[in-house]
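Changelog note: in this version the structure field was regenerated for every chain. One regenerated record is shown below for reference.
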Amino acid sequence: MPTVTFLNKQGRVAVDCQEGETLLQAGLRQGVPLPYGCGAGVCSTCVARARPGTVETDWADAPGAQNLKHDKGECLLCQSLVTDDCEILVPGKIDLAQTLAETPAHHRARLHDVALVAPDVATFQVSLEGQSDYTAGQYFLVRLEGMQGYRPYSMTDFQREAQTLNFVIKRIPNGKFSEEIFSNDVSEAKVDVFGPMGLATFDPSDPNEARDLVCLVGGSGIAGIMSVLDRAVSVNHFESHRLFMVFGVRRREDFFFLDELKRIKESAPDNVSIHLAVSEEEGSEELDAYRDFPLHQGFVHEVAERLGDGMFENRLAFLGGPPAMLTGSLALLLGAGLPVTDIRYDRFG
């Protein structure tokens, strides 16, 4: 079993790396606080350096790997495998000697119960051989047998000692994982999962998070936010705190999870404000209500700006959705004076 030494100006730490395990997974599994944003080759947050030729790439076509300077030894920790002992230079000022309080792990699992909930959107479940605790808003990496690289999926609820994880997936053109789910009618499959991961979390027992919330979400990006809201409702968070939420899709037939959102609304109707937005339906800015929710025309951040006067101050914000939606929502919240430390999202896109 190879020994990998992570090092920077602050120090160094050595870990064992299992066969087929990425450098990022090896480090996180053993408590090393390595930098990452997605863990799946998308965001490039985990760029590090190795001596050229000492690491192998698990998924060469990963979006985040396209601009790497291979001649300088750059690699993605989340896509790099090793077969021999090596040293990896980790940029930044991370104290590698610190140990993560909670560490992710590998799980053998079974994917099952795929169900279409909207055009090109489906839910699915993954049953673990064991069980796992996770914090609301976290995600797992999932990989089908024979597939290059892992894909990140956020849980749609909150559980402790979870044995079955609930996810939502959007069909992506030419996306290998989603095409397997949608085109090949996968009803059950063996999968390898790693987690939990992610920092866009919500813990209402933390006094710093006992606050009003704002959630701006688009499409399947609602997954992790549903986990946050499930956790909030479980402790009656909205009896004493407010929620302002905008959930956007292209057309009204693309909406899903509306029954679940209705239950959240009914848990504290005076404090929960949930609005729907459609970006590809023409008409006035204010449309007829849809499924008992106010319906608006426009992108999520546009609708939030029209409705959100005074709604953002001192709130904890959660974002989920495609890159353009995240960019617009970030600009809105930062422009409203919300500090970046109070805005939480994962960089999946």
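Spot check on this record: The longest strand covers residues 105-118. DSSP finds six helices and 20 strands in the chain.
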